[in-house]
């Protein structure tokens, strides 16, 4: 009541303003009315009809709906009957279970037409080996499509596009992901189903920040195999242990306490890290709608049931805690509603679709009974009931065929694979970047970056995978902290290089090279190099060499200018070689270790240990510095295990020393070749990295320039041949008809005149051609006669060179005259034939034939 006095003055002011406006309009007269009329027309012209609901959903879909097949835009009679049955089923379901979420039965497709979800599946087998297995299917779908989250996340989608439309746009919801994946799996022979249910927030939104990257290689600890030493009767007894047992127990006790303290610290740190990584509570837990794929065992040798998340392309067991419940599942033959309790997720669910107590089916038929029941588990009563049902055959409604066109994925889409050719995936302390082949100039297809922190700000290692590289580079790993680079190569590279670990490409620095030993002549397996050493390992050599170590001495610095300085090799101090056992020789004669002490001019040889001995035999030699002196026994010393053996004779020791000195030269030559090989590999790597080239298959005409130019040349030749053929088939009457004005019909007199003119023109052309050839014949003959007259006048004063030139000219002139004469005779023979052929062609012309006969 108190607010009425405040409202009445405002109403009175509004009424006064309206009266004043009416008076002004009346005073405006006709001019004001015309202006208002124009304003009204302009306003109405701006008004446009609002787009339909289908256009609002996807303008491109409405624009292209006319180009889609009729099955996309209309429903057949069988589909309409199916929708009626689905509506009836949904009404009964809503009445019996009013608290449950509505079912996804007949959503709209891209054309705005309701389609049953089972008919949206289109089983298709594609001609790609990768798509034939579920791992390849799931990986391709997750890479090729982009996710459109459900909005709102707790409601079922009102629209479900076809798999062909999803492939065309390369985007879709989780339901469209699953529909496409299930269609490919069904075509490949899997017993696959689309599942509508609920899942965790991270799975619904494709958030993989808390998942471990699958590309991270698990660190497998290599078990050290300890070889048991064979105890013999004459082994040396170990020395007595003189340590105090009390001190040992105290030390073990302290180590145990330290281990327990360290373990508790690690557990506490792990607990704190888990609390930090634990996501905040989801207010929509258990309500987020998600769709995934269920694969049942049986077909394609699948041992047990499992789920596939189409968004990430990963498989999970049916007891996974990431799936919180199931409402319904369907395939291309039927639709089932889950009647089991999902309070504990999917851990206790069974997928016996033939059990109507746990799964309620939509269509009654052969697809709704006994899907997973084995014949061994059926009782005799069940078999009798089945026989009675077979006798009483009933007409059942079968699922209509899919309204979707056949799924097609081009070779270009299989290669590009990712939307735009690239894709970035964020994992726990790692990021993965994927690239399409040939997109990056260096052939990069995958880059994995690991970080030291959860915020992914401090990179630890960067691993890159390559493809189609001309240098056969397959993988490269870079450790950011140390700068250590590890490169892996495929077979086929020069020097059979397999792996290269280095910090810098400068020679004589720390590095390790592994090789494909089976592709090398020297059977080299690895080479480890440092500034002071070089160690080589061999495999399966015929001389049983498996280890070679080169120790370098300190290098003397050179003070020469850089321009005049030559490449100085590192001086070798010592070379150690080790050999495997050669059972064709006696142990005392089989070399186990050979040491060349170059700085001391000595050679040490150690032989293999005999089975019943504890000390091996050995020989030491001192190289004589003065070759003029004879060999003396003081230059050699040896040890023989068996004292009963006769001592080595001086001649034998001399020959052994000479053989070892010759072998030393070969070893030094091999070391020099190894050093040159390292420099060649480093130079080649620098050149390859400066100018990277990719290998292109000869069958890839889109990228292979030579193949593309060859195909274009073939097309050009074919077009030229076609043009020549068309030119040959030109209308010979066209110029003569143009003189007559190109009449629609010809009279008898005009036809006779055309034929006469055409034959006369042909006759004149033949005569002109004969005259032209005759003129050429006369010209050549006249020139030859003039040359002969010149020769008769100057015959006495001509040199031998002039005479040879005259004879060559006469020979060429006679040849040309002979050719022209042949052409003239051939023309005379063919001219009548050409004239008669033209006359016959004119008589067969449909425009002239009625007046010539």
From TrEMBL:
UniProt superkingdom: Eukaryota
Residues annotated as domain Transglutaminase-like: 162-202
Keyword Coiled coil belongs to the record: yes
GO biological process: cell differentiation; flagellated sperm motility; spermatogenesis
InterPro entries in the record: CEPT76/DRC7_peptidase-like_dom (IPR056290), DRC7/lobo (IPR033551), DRC7_C (IPR056292), MORN_DRC7 (IPR056291), Papain-like_cys_pep_sf (IPR038765), Transglutaminase-like (IPR002931)
Residues forming coiled coils: 246-275
Residues covered by the Dynein regulatory complex subunit 7 MORN domain: 419-697
Every Dynein regulatory complex subunit 7 C-terminal domain range: 745-852
Entry keyword Ribonucleoprotein: no
Residue ranges annotated for the CEP76/DRC7 peptidase-like domain, each copy included: 289-360
Assigned GO CC terms: motile cilium
Region Disordered, residue ranges: 1-40, 373-397
One Pfam family this sequence matches: Transglut_core
Acidic residues bias: start-end ranges: 1-30, 382-397
Keywords: Cell projection, Cilium, Coiled coil, Cytoplasm, Cytoskeleton, Differentiation, Flagellum, Spermatogenesis
Location(s) in or outside the cell: Cytoplasm, Cytoskeleton, Flagellum axoneme
Family to which the UniProt record says this protein belongs: Belongs to the DRC7 family.
Protein name listed in UniProt: Dynein regulatory complex subunit 7
Organism: Astyanax mexicanus (Blind cave fish)
């Amino acid at each position: 009541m108190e607010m009425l006095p405040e409202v009445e003055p405002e109403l009175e002011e509004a009424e006064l303003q309206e009266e004043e406006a009416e008076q002004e309009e009346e005073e405006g007269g006709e001019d004001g009315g015309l202006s208002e009329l124009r304003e009204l027309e302009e306003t109405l012209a701006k008004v446009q009809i609002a787009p339909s609901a289908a256009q609002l959903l996807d303008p491109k879909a409405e624009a292209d709906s006319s180009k889609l097949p009729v099955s996309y835009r209309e429903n057949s009679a069988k589909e309409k009957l199916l929708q009626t049955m689905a509506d009836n089923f949904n009404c009964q379901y809503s009445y019996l279970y009013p608290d449950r979420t509505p079912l996804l039965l007949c959503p709209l497709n891209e054309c705005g037409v309701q389609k049953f979800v089972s008919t949206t599946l289109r089983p298709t087998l594609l001609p790609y080996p990768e798509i034939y297995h579920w791992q390849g299917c799931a990986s391709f779908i997750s890479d090729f499509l982009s996710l459109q989250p459900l909005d709102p996340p707790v409601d079922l989608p009102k629209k479900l596009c076809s798999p062909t439309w999803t492939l065309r746009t390369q985007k879709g919801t989780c339901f469209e992901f699953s529909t496409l994946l299930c269609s490919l799996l069904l075509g490949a022979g899997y017993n696959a189903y689309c599942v509508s249910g609920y899942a965790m927030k991270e799975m619904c939104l494709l958030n993989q920040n808390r998942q471990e990257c699958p590309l991270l290689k698990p660190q497998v600890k290599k078990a050290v195999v300890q070889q048991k030493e064979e105890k013999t009767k004459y082994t040396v007894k170990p020395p007595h242990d003189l340590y105090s047992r009390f001190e040992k127990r105290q030390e073990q006790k302290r180590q145990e306490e330290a281990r327990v303290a360290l373990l508790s610290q690690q557990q506490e740190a792990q607990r704190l890290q888990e609390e930090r990584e634990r996501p905040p509570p989801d207010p929509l837990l258990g309500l987020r709608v998600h769709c995934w794929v269920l694969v049942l065992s049986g077909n394609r040798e699948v041992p047990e049931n499992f789920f596939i998340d189409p968004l990430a392309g990963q498989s999970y067991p049916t007891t996974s805690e990431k799936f919180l419940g199931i409402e319904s599942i369907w395939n291309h033959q039927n639709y089932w509603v889950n009647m089991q309790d999902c309070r504990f997720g999917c851990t206790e669910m069974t997928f016996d679709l033939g059990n109507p107590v746990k799964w309620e089916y939509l269509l009654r038929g052969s697809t709704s009974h006994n899907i997973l029941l084995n014949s061994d588990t059926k009782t005799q009563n069940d078999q009798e009931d089945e026989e009675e049902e077979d006798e009483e055959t009933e007409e059942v409604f079968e699922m209509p065929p899919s309204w979707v066109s056949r799924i097609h994925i081009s070779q270009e889409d299989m290669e590009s694979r990712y939307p735009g050719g690239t894709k970035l995936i964020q994992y726990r302390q790692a990021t993965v970047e994927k690239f399409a082949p040939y997109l990056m100039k260096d052939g990069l297809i995958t880059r994995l970056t690991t970080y030291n922190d959860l915020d992914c700000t401090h990179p630890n290692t960067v691993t890159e995978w390559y493809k189609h590289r001309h240098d056969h580079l397959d993988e490269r790993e870079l450790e950011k902290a140390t700068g250590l680079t590890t490169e892996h190569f495929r077979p086929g590279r020069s020097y059979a290089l397999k792996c290269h670990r280095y910090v810098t490409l400068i020679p004589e620095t720390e590095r390790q090279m592994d090789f494909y030993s089976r592709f090398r002549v020297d059977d080299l397996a690895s080479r480890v190099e440092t500034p002071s050493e070089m160690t080589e390992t061999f495999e399966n050599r015929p001389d049983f060499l498996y280890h070679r170590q080169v120790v370098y001495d300190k290098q003397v610095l050179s003070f020469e200018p850089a321009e005049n300085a030559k490449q100085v090799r590192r001086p070798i101090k010592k070379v150690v070689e080790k050999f495997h056992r050669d059972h064709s020789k006696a142990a005392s004669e089989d070399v186990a270790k050979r040491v060349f002490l170059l700085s001391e001019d000595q050679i040490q040889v150690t032989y293999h240990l005999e089975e019943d001995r504890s000390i091996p035999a050995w020989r030491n030699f001192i190289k004589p510095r003065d070759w003029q002196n004879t060999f003396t026994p003081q230059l050699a010393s040896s040890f023989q295990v068996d004292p009963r053996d006769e001592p080595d004779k001086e001649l034998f020791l001399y020959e052994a020393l000479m053989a070892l000195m010759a072998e030393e030269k070969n070893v030094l030559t091999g070391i020099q070749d190894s050093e040159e090989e390292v420099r060649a590999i480093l130079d080649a790597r620098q050149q390859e990295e400066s100018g990277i080239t990719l290998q292109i298959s000869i069958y890839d005409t889109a990228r292979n320039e030579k193949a593309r130019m060859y195909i274009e040349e073939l097309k050009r030749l074919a077009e030229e041949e076609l043009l020549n053929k068309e030119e040959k088939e030109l209308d010979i009457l066209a110029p003569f008809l143009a003189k007559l004005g190109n009449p629609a019909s010809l009279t008898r007199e005009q036809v006779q005149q055309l034929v006469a003119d055409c034959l006369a023109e042909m006759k004149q052309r033949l005569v002109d051609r004969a005259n032209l050839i005759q003129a050429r014949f006369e010209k050549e003959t006249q020139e030859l006669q003039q040359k002969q007259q010149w020769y008769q006048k100057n015959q006495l004063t001509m040199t031998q060179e002039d005479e040879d030139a005259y004879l060559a000219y006469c020979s060429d002139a006679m040849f040309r005259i002979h050719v022209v004469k042949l052409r003239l005779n051939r023309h005379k023979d063919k001219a009548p034939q050409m004239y008669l052929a033209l006359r016959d062609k004119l008589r067969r012309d449909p425009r002239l034939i009625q007046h010539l006969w």
